[in-house]
TrEMBL record:
SUPFAM superfamilies: Periplasmic binding protein-like II (SSF53850). Residues 27-244 form the Solute-binding protein family 3/N-terminal domain. It is found in: Periplasm. NCBIfam families: taurine_ABC_bnd (TIGR01729). Its main location: periplasm. This is Taurine-binding periplasmic protein TauA. Pfam families: NMT1. It comes from the Bacteria. The keyword NAD does not apply. GO terms for biological process: alkanesulfonate transmembrane transport.
Amino acid sequence: MSYIPYARRLLAVLTLSSLTLAAQAADFTVAYQTTVDPAKVAQADGAYEKASKSEIDWRKFDGGAEVITAVASGDVQIGYVGSSPLAAAATRQLPIQTFLIATQIGAAEALVARNGSNIGKPEDLIGKKVAVPFVSTGHYSLLAALKHWNIDPTKVQILNLAPPAIISAWKRGDIDATYVWDPALGVAKENGKVLITSGELSELGAPTFDAWIVRKDFAEKHPEIVRAFAKVTLDAYADYRKDPKAWLANQDNIAKLVKLSGAKAEDIPLLLQGNVFPLAADQATALGAPTTQAITDTARFLKEQGKVDAVLPDYTPYVSNQYVTN
């Protein structure tokens, strides 16, 4: 046997094997945000990579609108978004599906007025500068709060700022109030007063939630990866909810949350307790009529506020529980 033909055959086999492995790996990109949730520990531990048997490029985003843009472009396959940008994206009929409810938002998002801004009651917001990332759950909640208080939003100077810009503006004293989440929320609360939280607004009929979405083409091609991603998240939630006190006593858990969220260690217990992290048994039901209706209601509100042009007759195609059920 001559060396050259053998070498060629060996090269062909190695090339074919490499292509096969590449096809099996299905490496993908995930857009995450700085929310405080138990699954951040799994993210830090590499549990998602192990379960999906893939390399994951984790990219941090400051708001849901930017995540939607990245998912729509195809740069990101799985993304973390709030219910408001999700409703806007579905209304635009982008190729996405909601496959997991990440959290039902409570005290982790809030409207905070700066000390010394002369905002003692809701009516004092009139004429003041209030910063919020547009088309976010915070934006939706701010508008819902103003509607509840019968305050015309055009009489409030609502500024579109991303969370990092909100932190800078707050420290400079350029804004009077903000509706935001951590780490910006923690900064604002240091010298500000909470006027209302998203949990309180939920009780008033304006609930918000965060969700994991996936591009439909990726999900159709790799349903096992989406299912593995959901399982890792739900296992992390179950581990926390089994014994929150013990979970919070583990300083390694706290350190990983601080690193990935930017929140202060002392704020993490309150932020976790301020949200609800649905378990697997709750997800199957939630990812049906309740979520579809919530998206519909949010879209209707956004249309009233002129943030979307129309409301779809049916949002069912944008929600699926197939990745959390066997």
